[in-house]
Design brief:
The structure is a single chain. The chain is built from 14 helices and 7 strands. The protein is α+β, with helices and mostly antiparallel strands. Strand 5 and strand 6 form a beta hairpin. The chain is globular and about 75 Å long.
């Protein structure tokens, strides 16, 4: 809750300076800000789930329409924005929309906050101009500083745990051989077959020793835990996927479980009230699509892969993508 207290203090400073409250700076404009701390539920990142929570109810997403702009908090028109969007208002206002749009490239204008983590030398939150090459972002000293301990790049989750994972060769270049850029359009090039999404900017880098299967199990366990349970495909499907992936980690999976896992995720995708179901299914589909041979290796040698972090390195196995 320390962040809550910091925010409350900053808001009070704005009131004291006359930037909030009644008749702000003599303009005749009134604005008050109230902070409502939440319980940390992932599902409340969905705007109508957030509204339900603000109203004191369980954070279940609503059916749409009506959309919040028509019927939101307490049935009143409501605009829901995240902090990053609101933070961009000041430079846009000061610079003007046309000038601000010169930052970036193509339709991806302005800046983007990228939370870089994983096996990199300089993890952190970076504000980048849209259009930086992915290779530069990962390997330059200006940003992530390369893969730690001199390891090779294996895979990247470019926009948070819900977006498709890509192997090194597809995150650095598109399937057409073009340099992949940190833009919405470039990362999406190739669709979900060979592309991904910029999403929330949660940029996770994995080195050559990473177990894609164990990482996927961790993602799926999270989505199972965070599902609100309102939609049966998400409520049941996330649990089934977690259990099947646990079979791989325990060395009890069969080859048929790979296709079963892919089939289950396909029954979740696009069949839920909110995008959490999609978020749970896309990492599974992409992991199998690009790293199927690693799943097969778990089936063949599952009893020997307890120490998953070092298995491939110690056995000098080359995991090929399919």
């Amino acid at each position: 809750m320390y962040v809550y207290h910091i925010l409350e203090k900053a808001i009070q400073e704005a009131y004291d300076a006359g930037y909030l409250g009644k008749n702000i700076l003599g303009s005749g404009f009134d604005l008050d800000i109230f902070v409502h701390p939440g319980g940390g539920a992932y599902i409340c990142g969905e705007e109508t789930g957030l509204i339900e929570s603000l109203e004191g109810k369980r954070g279940n997403p609503r059916l749409k329409p009506p959309f919040p702009a028509v019927k939101g908090v307490w049935d009143r028109p409501t605009v829901v924005n995240n902090v990053e969007t609101i933070a961009a208002v000041v430079p846009i206002t000061i610079m003007g929309g046309d000038e601000y749009a010169k930052i970036g490239i193509g339709k991806s204008t302005g800046t983007k906050l990228i939370s870089a983590s994983g096996h990199i030398n300089k993890p952190g939150v970076y504000e980048i101009e849209m259009g930086v090459p992915v290779e530069e972002f990962i390997f330059s000293e200006k940003y992530c500083g390369g893969i730690r301990n001199g390891k090779k790049l294996k895979a990247v989750v470019a926009g948070g745990s819900s977006v498709p994972i890509l192997p090194a060769e597809l995150i650095l270049k598109t399937a057409k051989g073009e340099s992949r850029l940190m833009t919405y359009e470039s990362l999406a090039d190739g669709g979900f077959q060979t592309g991904t999404a910029l999403g929330s900017g949660g940029f996770i880098v994995m080195d050559e020793d990473t177990s894609i299967v164990k990482n996927l199990w961790n993602f799926t366990r999270f989505y199972h835990h965070e599902s609100c349970g309102q939609c049966s495909p998400c409520r049941e499907g996330t649990g089934w996927m977690e259990k099947i992936l646990h079979k791989f980690l325990e060395g009890n999976a069969a080859m048929s479980d790979i296709d079963l896992l892919f089939d289950i995720q396909s029954k979740i995708d696009g069949r839920t009230i909110c995008p959490l179901g999609d978020a749970a299914s896309w990492p599974v589909a992409s992991a199998i699509r690009h790293f199927r041979s690693e799943f097969e290796e778990y089936v063949k040698n599952g009893k020997n892969i307890k120490d998953v972090k070092h298995y491939y390195r110690l056995n000098q196995l080359e995991v090929t993508n399919s």
